[in-house]
Design goal:
heterodimer, A: mainly alpha, 12 helices, 0% strand, B: mainly alpha, 73% helix
């Protein structure tokens, strides 16, 4: 870019089409010929190519930062469990979907307002200190056979838990033993702090040795018991887990 | 009947997704792989901030290699291993670097220490810096077109412009970026 060539809009759009691969046929052949015989043109083209590449890379890096920010918001709660006493209680209601920071800020502000007005009971506070919504599964909306399942997963990731529940509950009627459905139904209910149905679903997965979700289900089952105030059952469940978080929570429950 | 168990995306689908800057797939890979790299960096004298930088540099490197078809997966988890390995190597390079022993200013860590060896990389870095200084409209417009690959008609609609205006603005934004680059030199 050492050379300060002026590029007209027409020329720019031509370069762009060539670089992005949307130039075809005769135009492309003619363009390639003119480049081959013109050094200045070649230089202009090369410069533009690097600029467009740089723009894409810059946007990609921005995107990585956004993803990272969301990830950090999600893990805030779990990281804070290491610190004693007054924990900052931020619950992440939108675990995955891209969301505007404004919306999450609003939620956080709202949450603190709510915290000031109605302080949750001790069970709920303990639950919130450890609870972090399961991030859900990657969805490929293209596969038609899984459409309903994926559609519900999108709802789940956008924190529309009630909608996700409605969809998945229809599906589970045909597949009552499906552990994936059981797990995410449990997860949706728990996100809505409905401990009772959450326990119902997580319990099924937590005792299923063949399930990939077993460990996660054990953890969430314990949290659901905490939320419901059944600490003795929570302790019993946590004893099965080697997860460091589970050991922390177990300590907290037994030292009370 | 339908199978509701989670259909794992194949390597090809993931690679295609990365190639096309698919937001969901990039996010999925990031969330899947970052914790491992973070754990590695944290247990080897690093901080969260450094873990993030290292991981993102590795991700950019992998992204570029995939785009240039320099990376071909050999098995089902090849990509994950590859990403982790690159991040790990970058971290080891950092630990071995003489600067590490003197001052480690994390904010400027990458600007100073990254191997910006060839001219093109230097140029790309400059473009990146200039890009962040563009106005919000330009950034969004360029991101939508060159990164998200949205069509000009979609973009025009999103900004409530005519398509001609959108095209003119795109040209202007690129011109502005070019000027910023020239003025820097």
């Amino acid at each position: 870019m050492e050379n300060n060539y002026h590029i007209s809009q027409e020329e720019f759009e031509k370069f762009e089409r060539y670089i992005l691969g949307s130039m075809e046929g005769k135009e492309k052949t003619a363009f390639e010929q003119s480049i081959a015989s013109d050094k200045v043109l070649t230089q202009k083209m090369e410069d533009m190519k690097v600029i467009l590449e740089g723009v894409e890379e810059a946007a990609f890096r921005n995107n990585l930062d956004q993803i990272h920010q969301e990830l950090e918001m999600e893990t805030t709660t779990s990281n804070e469990t290491n610190k004693p006493a007054d924990k900052k209680e931020v619950i992440n209601l939108f675990p995955l979907k891209p969301l505007s920071i404004a919306a999450s800020l609003l939620l956080t502000v709202g949450f603190f307002a709510w915290l000031l007005l109605f302080r949750p009971d001790p069970n709920e506070r303990l639950f919130m200190a450890y609870y972090q919504a399961d991030p859900g599964l990657v969805t490929a909306m293209s596969s038609a056979s899984n459409y309903e399942f994926d559609r519900a997963m999108v709802d789940y990731k956008s924190a529309k838990y009630q909608d996700a529940i409605t969809r998945w509950e229809k599906l589970i009627q045909d597949k009552p033993e499906n552990d994936t459905l059981q797990f995410f139904l449990g997860a949706s209910h728990l996100a809505l702090k409905k401990a009772d149905p959450a326990i119902f679903y997580f319990d099924a997965v937590a005792t299923n040795e063949n399930s990939n979700f077993q460990n996660d289900a054990i953890w969430y089952l314990a949290l659901a018991y905490v939320l419901e105030g059944k600490e003795d059952l929570a302790v019993e469940v946590l004893r099965q887990s080697q997860d460091p978080q589970a050991i922390d929570l177990l300590k907290e429950l037994t030292e009370k | 009947m339908q199978q509701y168990t989670f259909r794992k995306l194949t390597q090809i689908e993931i690679l295609e997704g990365i190639k096309n800057n698919d937001a969901d797939i990039l996010q999925g890979v990031y969330q899947d792989q970052y914790p491992k790299v973070e754990k590695y960096v944290l247990s080897n004298n690093g901080t969260h901030h450094e873990a993030k930088d290292i991981f993102q540099e590795a991700f950019v490197a992998v992204w570029k290699n995939i785009k240039n078809d320099r990376f071909k997966p050999e098995n089902g988890t090849a990509l994950n291993g590859y990403l982790y390995q690159i991040a790990k190597n970058k971290w080891l390079d950092h630990l071995r670097s003489p600067k590490y022993k003197k001052t480690v200013s994390l904010e400027n860590f990458y600007e100073k220490e990254e191997e910006v060896n060839d001219e093109k990389e230097i140029q790309l870095k400059k473009i990146e810096v200039s890009f962040t200084k563009l106005g919000e409209n330009c950034k969004e417009l360029l991101t939508r077109f060159y990164y998200k690959k949205e069509s000009m008609s979609m973009i025009a609609k999103a900004f409530d412009w005519t398509e001609a205006t959108a095209r003119n603005n795109k040209y202007r934004c690129i011109q502005r970026l070019k000027e910023m680059l020239i003025n820097k030199e």
